[in-house]
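Sample entry (299 residues):
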Amino acid sequence: MTELKRSTLATAGWSARQVLLSSRPVSWINTAFPFAAAYLLTIGHVDALLLVGTVFFLIPYNLLMYGINDVFDYESDLRNPRKGGAEGALLDPRLHRLVLRSGVISAIPFLVAMVVLAGWQHPFAWLVLGVSLFAVVAYSVPGLRFKEVPFLDSVTSSTHFVSPAVFGLALAGAAVTPSLVAVLVAFFLWGMASHAFGAVQDVCPDREAGIGSIATALGAARTVQFAMLLWTLAGLLMLLTAWPGPLAALLAVPYIVTAFPWRRVSDERSADANRGWKRFLWLNYFSGFVVTLLMIAIS
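Predicted structure, serialized as tokens:
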């Protein structure tokens, strides 16, 4: 193998790793699991649509969501010391076009396959998917930048994770019940709380870059307290669901405990909340495991 070929392969491998990193592999499960769980619990068996939708929300969806974010947040990410790893790729500008193209190109075949497999008998499902994809784009692209609008940033972020579940339910033709609504609202409040808590660690870099967020608007301490309130409300809502759903209310406790040490953190020390955020990322896996056990009990 010539030196030129080795160099070309090394460059291609580096580019592929950076594209993959921009999709936040550690968070793939957070969008794939809600869709798969909602669809499977409703339809009761594994089919091609379940497999295609799960893979879509596992990789292409995250590549679109986080890739777009990393491209258009590049200038502010340069000032953020936590970027450049699992919490977000610091993309070389030469890769920006590749990342955007990869997100679109990888998503299209799955979207087409879902339309072919499901048809148009559940129009609300496609409306939900449209809202979901709009939220993915609107969060970061210039001209919309919902991530810079306090409170709307948390609402949009939560939509990223709740909409796959709603799409799965609608695609499978789930019946709307008070218990189901309570679960979805609790999930939405959990998503808002998670985004708000995550925004705390970026108060200083965001202000230096002139970027607004729920945390720059409320301040670090009040944002942590707001997140704790939302997690508490989410837990209380789960008490209104059918058994064994109320057991999931206990899952709010570790999140509140994780955020509690930073309930009075100053804006100047807000970056310290990153320690809690890292625990939060792993806590999601534990919560997912417990939710899976509850789903098995329900089925």
